[in-house]
Design goal:
34 strands, mainly beta, six-stranded antiparallel sheet, Immunoglobulin-like, C2_TIP
Length: 499
């Protein structure tokens, strides 16, 4: 793995970000082995696979490019024009590299500015490996402050939905989260009630609470299924509008209970009383992370320390006890650093752009779907996981179908997608797409993570065995006593007859 670091150059003028790549050497980084990019960016770049060779590329608007996006191709580190768009990119952007057209090939989502200066979105479809303009989407009219777009299968139908947090006034006294379902341009509010015990909370307006580095943190949702019910939840940082308290809160994905969210069928509900999370004051960023590699998403919170220039990282273990199931999927690049030895399957590293979808049957016999994109966003503290954890709820059934798709190069018409069947729940699947152009030859390695029910079953089995052994022992002891008694009676009868 290599590391791309963006930085503010000394005596920088305006919006100018430099970038340097530290090249990985096995499990270490050599600080002397680095490449400083010869161009600067107007905003943080997006890591994507622009040409479908499964080598990460760097996408962004560079200074001197006339406002048109450029791409630095990985491998040979050459600059090329990426797209020709009529709009300027919004700063901060929430560009994404994710499948939005349901063809298992990642498309390009751009956040731009309209002619009037308002935020809007562009979807550039991936057609035969080339990006072409597809559609345009405007932000909800009620939003005055627009946050960072997030993508998740919000309603569990197997399609990627668009989540957009923001504020309906400039001071964020009225905050909201809107949802645009896959393939639609209609915005539906999924959370507008931010009141709790007489206090009104809301998102932190960007620019008012900068980090010590003076880089503002935009309004961001970090997505993850903390209770593994198959519906992704979120973490958000909220501020008390009548005070200075700023905390991270868990937003649980629950069925819709009011008329405003009927179009989405589900909504977010704020968990106000999570004791450990509420004890972390002055939170700046909160995200999910599987600390124990057990498929259960824990929480990491970045907060201010005792002084304003200090930052502290808090790790909170997820103690969710319900025995729900999951599948954890990691899609690698399937590349070697040089020519692969014979009969050796290359692993490679985690890759931006793969798309995962599953179908199964829940405990009630209903068809259940779920989907996720891997490493679709990388800028402005997106902090996405390098794998996808898909919750399955309490259904212990095998996954009927699991589909994995990867980007394809220019001119290739065939979709690079492979299907696996009968995947065991509570397992980690490592997908190696090698060779890239032959999905039927792709391999997958399955690692099992036993759940609590396995331990309970073992305890129950041992308990039953001990109980049966106790009964057998008691019966054997009674039979032995009866035999001894009978032998004594026989011996007594023999001596009596002899007399």
């Amino acid at each position: 793995m290599d590391v791309l670091l963006t930085y503010l150059p000394k005596n920088h003028a305006g919006s100018e970000l430099g970038a340097v790549i530290f090249w990985g050497q096995n499990q270490t980084l050599d600080p002397n082995n680095m490449t400083v990019l010869d161009r600067t960016f107007q905003d943080e770049p997006l890591i994507m696979d622009f040409n479908g060779d499964l080598i990460p590329d760097v996408f962004g608007v560079t200074n001197g490019s006339g406002g048109q996006p450029q791409v630095l191709l990985g491998g040979n580190l050459s600059w090329h024009p990426a797209l020709t768009t009529r709009r300027k990119m919004r700063i901060p952007h929430s560009n994404a590299f994710i499948d939005l057209t349901e063809d298992f090939t990642a498309d390009l989502f751009l956040t731009t500015l309209s002619a009037s200066g308002t935020s809007q979105f562009e979807i550039w479809k991936n057609v035969d490996g080339n990006f072409s303009f597809g559609s345009e989407l405007r932000t909800p009219q009620a939003l005055v402050v627009v946050g960072q777009s997030a993508f998740a299968d919000f309603d569990g139908d197997g399609h990627t939905d668009h989540l957009l947090p923001g504020c309906e006034d400039s001071s964020c006294q009225r905050s909201a989260i809107y949802l645009a379902r896959s393939g639609t341009a209609q915005w539906v509010p999924v959370l507008q009630d931010f009141g709790h015990k007489g206090a009104l909370w809301g998102f932190v307006p960007p620019g008012q609470e900068p980090l010590p580095t003076e880089i503002p943190v935009p309004i961001t949702l970090h997505i993850g299924d903390y209770n593994m019910d198959g519906y992704p939840d979120a973490l958000a940082v909220l501020k008390n509008t009548s005070g200075s308290n700023q905390q991270a809160f868990l937003l649980e994905n629950v069925p819709c209970t009011n008329a405003s969210c009927e179009g989405a069928r589900r909504m977010f509900k704020v968990y106000w009383e999570l004791a450990d999370l509420s004890q972390v004051r002055d939170a700046v960023v909160a995200t999910f992370f599987d600390i124990y590699e057990d498929g259960i998403l824990d929480i990491l919170v970045l907060s201010r320390g005792y002084t304003r220039n200090d930052l502290t990282i808090h790790a909170l273990k997820n103690n969710f006890e319900a025995d729900a199931y999951f599948v954890k999927v990691i899609v690698l690049s399937g590349l070697c650093s040089n020519d692969c030895p014979r009969k050796i399957t290359p692993f490679g590293v985690n890759q931006p752009g793969p798309y995962i979808m599953y179908t199964t049957v829940d405990a009630n016999g209903h068809l259940k779907n779920g989907s996720a994109g891997q490493l679709s966003q990388s800028a402005h503290l997106a902090l996405q996981l390098p794998y996808s954890v898909l919750g399955l709820g309490r259904s212990a059934n095998f996954l009927d179908h699991l589909y994995v798709g990867i980007p394809r190069p220019s001119g290739e018409k065939a979709v690079r997608r492979q299907e696996w069947t009968a995947i065991i729940p509570n397992s980690q699947l490592i997908v190696i797409p090698f060779p890239h152009s032959a999905p039927r030859s792709w391999s997958a390695k399955l690692y099992l993570t036993p759940s609590n029910i396995v331990l309970l079953t073992a305890i129950a089995l041992v308990g039953v065995c001990v109980f049966i052994l106790a009964i057998i022992g008691a019966l054997h002891w009674q039979e032995k006593k009866a035999d001894d008694r009978e032998k004594r009676q026989e011996a007594h009868r023999f001596h009596f007859d002899a007399m």
